[in-house]
């Protein structure tokens, strides 16, 4: 609990420090000297984000992480005071998985398609990019992160590390960042377009997370085992049966069905207009689903907080040391993956398979940020659904510390991404 208090104190003091230092950084942006310096750089588009953006990016980083950490801390206090019991936390995790998260995905996709339509960039590129990023992170986690920490490849600790390293936070944290950075941007279309990219990114991320994530942790589910890279535990002997079992495991999670269902409804104009059109006859139904969708983030934060406090006894014997695990995850998620992601995008652009950063700056910025996100919050929900409170507690503790440590590297990376893509905030 002392560690939790220190983390919360650090995150609460960070915005105060930025508020004291911020005005000094921002003042030069309005001077003539600043304008002359910008003109001398030769590329005004590249220089625009640098002039004062770093302070705003740092404020966005501290603000976004602070919201999640403080929400978790308040939830932890309710569990510590026995206002919420461990049994209720486990039940809430099932409600999040079976209802709140599906409502969030369903309504978000319909609203996005109703606003922006089904462009190839949204419908094809974003889901494919999500799967490609997860594949890269999974391979690096399995074959580099686990040996780096020094745990047995087939141990529970190795599976937990692989899960944490494979999946970043795809929606909640990026949206908090985007809102903090672009809510008052000169180009008012930037923020809603980033929300649209996030929504369709989740179409690819959601099936991969729940199917591959469960497969990573599976030691008793033959259908999920069919999705693992080495499916030795899969009971199906024929390839056709193995493919059917894998497809069933892929479509089984309620969030996956909700995402696909939302996309199907959004693609059907009569159904979509009945929910969100100007003369929507089912507007009240959509409003009710939106209300349940808004419960997703606070409920997931409470599950994380409850797991942190009510997780049971100490760590398993084969769990990695706390400091080593946190340092390895930070290096993996904030150094190695961003470098690999940027290298992959620049390589594709060099050979003509992907547009350059200046040709498609918003798409580049979005994909680069996804490579830099800390581990997904829903990994704690996944452990709760598997009735493994000790693993959920380890994961919640790790996430809380990693998220607090993410402020500085995320501020640095976001500022670099803004500069590389020529975006102004």
Sum this structure up briefly.
By secondary structure, this protein is mostly helical.
Structure description:
- The protein has 425 residues and is mostly helical.
- It is 76% helix and 0% strand.
- The radius of gyration is 22 Å and the shape is globular.
- The model is unreliable at 3-52, 227-233 and 313-318 (pLDDT under 50).
Q: What's the SSE blueprint?
A:
Elements: H1 2-26, H2 32-41, H3 44-47, H4 50-80, H5 86-116, H6 120-149, H7 156-166, H8 172-182, H9 190-217, H10 222-225, H11 239-251, H12 254-267, H13 269-276, H14 283-293, H15 296-309, H16 322-350, H17 361-371, H18 378-385, H19 389-405, H20 407-421
Helix pairs in contact: 1-4, 1-19, 4-8, 4-15, 4-20, 5-9, 5-12, 5-14, 5-15, 5-18, 6-7, 6-9, 6-16, 8-9, 9-12, 15-18, 15-19, 16-17, 16-19, 17-20, 18-19
Q: Helix/strand/pairing class, anyone?
A: mainly alpha
Chain-averaged pLDDT? 79
Work out the radius of gyration.
22 Å
Secondary-structure element pattern, one letter each = HHHHHHHHHHHHHHHHHHHH
Give the overall silhouette. globular
Helix content: over 70%
Number of distinct beta strands: 0
Distance between the termini: 38 Å
Number of helices: 20
Major sheet, described briefly? none
Q: Low-confidence parts lasting 5 or more residues at pLDDT below 50?
A: 3-52, 227-233, 313-318
Tell me the fraction of residues in β-strands, as a range: under 5%
What keyword list fits this structure?
425 residues, mainly alpha, single chain
């Amino acid at each position: 609990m002392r560690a939790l208090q220190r983390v919360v104190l650090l995150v609460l003091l960070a915005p105060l420090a930025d508020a004291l230092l911020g005005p000094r950084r921002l003042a030069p942006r309005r001077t003539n000297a600043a304008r002359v310096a910008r003109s001398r750089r030769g590329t005004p588009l590249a220089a625009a984000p640098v002039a004062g953006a770093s302070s705003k990016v740092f404020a966005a980083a501290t603000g976004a992480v602070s919201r999640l950490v403080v929400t978790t801390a308040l939830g932890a206090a309710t569990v510590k005071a026995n206002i919420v019991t461990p049994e209720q936390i486990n039940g809430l995790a099932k409600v999040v998985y079976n209802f709140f998260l599906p409502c969030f995905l369903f309504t978000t996709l319909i609203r996005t398609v109703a606003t922006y339509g089904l462009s190839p960039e949204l419908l094809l590129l974003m889901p494919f990019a999500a799967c490609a990023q997860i594949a890269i992170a999974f391979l690096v986690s399995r074959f580099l992160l686990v040996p780096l920490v020094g745990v047995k490849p087939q141990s529970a600790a190795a599976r937990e590390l692989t899960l944490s390293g494979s999946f970043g936070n795809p929606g909640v944290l990026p949206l908090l960042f985007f809102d903090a950075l672009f809510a008052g941007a000169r180009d008012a279309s930037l923020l809603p377009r980033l929300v649209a990219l996030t929504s369709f990114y989740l179409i690819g991320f959601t099936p991969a997370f729940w199917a591959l994530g469960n497969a990573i942790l599976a030691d008793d589910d033959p259908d999920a085992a069919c999705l693992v890279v080495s499916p030795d535990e899969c009971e199906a002997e024929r390839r056709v049966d193995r493919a059917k079992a894998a497809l069933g495991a892929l479509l089984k999670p309620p969030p996956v069905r909700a995402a696909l269902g939302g996309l199907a409804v959004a693609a059907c104009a009569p159904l979509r207009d009945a929910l969100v059109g100007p003369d929507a006859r089912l507007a009240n139904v959509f409003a009710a689903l939106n209300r349940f969708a808004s419960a997703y983030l606070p409920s997931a934060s409470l599950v994380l907080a409850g797991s942190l406090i009510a997780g049971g006894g100490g760590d398993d014997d084969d769990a990695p040391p706390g400091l080593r695990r946190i340092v390895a995850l930070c290096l993996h998620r904030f150094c190695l993956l961003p470098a690999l992601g940027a290298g992959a995008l620049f390589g594709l652009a060099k050979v003509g398979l992907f547009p350059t950063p200046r040709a498609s700056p918003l798409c580049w910025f979005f994909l680069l940020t996804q490579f830099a996100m800390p581990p997904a919050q829903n990994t704690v929900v996944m452990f709760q659904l598997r009735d493994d409170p000790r693993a959920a507690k380890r994961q919640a503790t790790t996430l809380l510390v990693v998220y607090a440590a993410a402020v500085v590297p995320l501020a640095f990376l976001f500022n670099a991404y803004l500069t590389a893509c020529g975006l102004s905030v």
